[in-house]
Amino acid sequence: VLVMSPINYVTHQLTNATQKFCYKYELCPFHNATQHEQTSRWNAYSGILGVWQGWDISNCTFMAMLLKEGDSCGSRNREVRVLFICGESNRLLRVAEPETCSYTMEFSSPLVCHAHALLVYPTLRESLRNEWDQLEQALYDSVINKQVTPPPIPPLSPTNPTLPSTSGLSLLL
Description:
Layout: E1 9-15, E2 20-28, E3 32-37, E4 46-58, E5 61-69, E6 72-73, E7 76-77, E8 79-86, E9 91-99, E10 102-109, H1 126-140
C-alpha cells in the first residue's frame, strides 16, 4: 500500500516581457492536482487543475494518471496528465502547460523503477486475471476480435416483450 503525503510541491516560474508569474503546484495522487499563484496580486489564481479520473493504458501498461474536470478555463476544463519517472523519492519534478489549460506533470517514485512496475496484469485481483486470461485465449483462438460488438438483440414479440440486459458487457481489449 502506497501512503503518500497529500502535498508534493514544485515551484514553476513563467516569465514573459511584461509579467512574471510564479506558481506552486500540489499533486495528491489518486485525488487531485492544484495550482496556486505566488504573487501579491489581489486576484491571484488558486484552483483545481484536475480530479482523479483513471489511467491512460497502452499495450497493457499504465502510461499516465489522468486528472480531468478541473476548474473552468474558457470553453473547457483544466486537465492534467501525470507521467511517472524512476527516482529515489516520491516527488513532483516538473510541470508544463503544453497547451492552454492542459498540463503535464512528471512524478518520480522508486515504485516505478522495476521494469514491470507499470504493467496492468499483476495489479488485477485473481478473478479479473482469470477473466483476462480467458479473453486473451478467446482472442488467440479467433473466437473474438479486438472490435467490441454487442450481441444481436432479439426482436420484440409477444413471448419476448422486453429487451435483454446489457449490464454484463464489459469487454475491453
